Amino acid sequence: xxxxxxxxxxxxxxxxxxxxxxxxxxxxxxxxxxxxxxxxxxxxxxxxxxxxxxxxxxxxxxxxxxxxxxxxxxxxxxxxxxxxxxxxxxxxxxxxxxxxxxxxxxxxxxxxxxxxxxxxxxxxxxxxxxxxxxxxxxxxxxxxxxxxx
Length: 149
Prior knowledge:
Layout: E1 3-6, E2 11-12, E3 15-16, H1 18-32, E4 38-42, H2 52-62, E5 70-73, H3 79-86, E6 94-97, H4 103-113, E7 117-119, H5 128-144
Parallel strand pairs: 1-4, 1-6, 4-5, 6-7
Antiparallel strand pairs: 2-3
Helix pairs in contact: 1-2, 3-4
Domain DUF218: 4-125
Pfam family, one: DUF218
InterPro entries: Cell_Envelope_Assoc (IPR051599), DUF218 (IPR003848), Rossmann-like_a/b/a_fold (IPR014729)
C-alpha cells in the first residue's frame, strides 16, 4: 500500500487556507491517478475549528476520494508532530504532500522522526512573505530536530 501524508496548514475563521486547499486537492489528484492508495490527513485545531485533518478530509471527499481511503491524524499542531503522530498510522515509505517551499523542512523532519519519505510537492507561485517565513522556520527546526526520534 502506498500512503500519502498530507501535511496540515492553517485554518482561518472563514475556512481552510489556500495552502491547505492546495495540499488536499493535490493529494486527491495523486489518489485518483492511482499513485497512492491511502491518505493520512494531518493537523489538529490550532486556531479555528474544525481540525486541519477534518478540513482536508472534506476536500478529499469533495474531489472523489472515498472515505475508506482516508485516515485522520487530528492532534498535531506543527510539522514535527505531523510526522510523530502519523508514524503509528503508516508502515513503510510514505509520499509527503506539502507546498514545495515547505518540502525541504518536511523531508528533514520525516528523516529525524524515522519515516522514509518521498516528496510530492504542490506546485504554486512563491510569495516573498512565505519565503521569509520558511527561512525562519528552517532555522528554528535545525534546533528543534536535534536529538529527535
